[in-house]
Amino acid sequence: TAPAVGPTLSGSARAAELRAEVTERAAASTERGVTPRLAVVVATEDESTGWYVRSLARAAGKTGVACDTVQLPTDARPALLRDTLTGLSEDPGVHGIILQTPLPPGSVAADLAGAIAPEKDVDGANPLSLGRLVAGLPAFAPATAEAVMQLLDAHAVPLSGRTVAVVGRSTVVGKPLAHLLLDRDATVTVCHSRTAELASVTRRMDVVVAAAGRPGLITAEHVRDGAVVVDVGTNATEDGALVGDVAAEEVGRKAALSPVPGGVGPITTALLLRHTVSAAAVASGH
Ligand code: NAD
Question: Residues in domain Tetrahydrofolate dehydrogenase/cyclohydrolase catalytic (predicted)?
Answer without folding.
Answer: 9-123
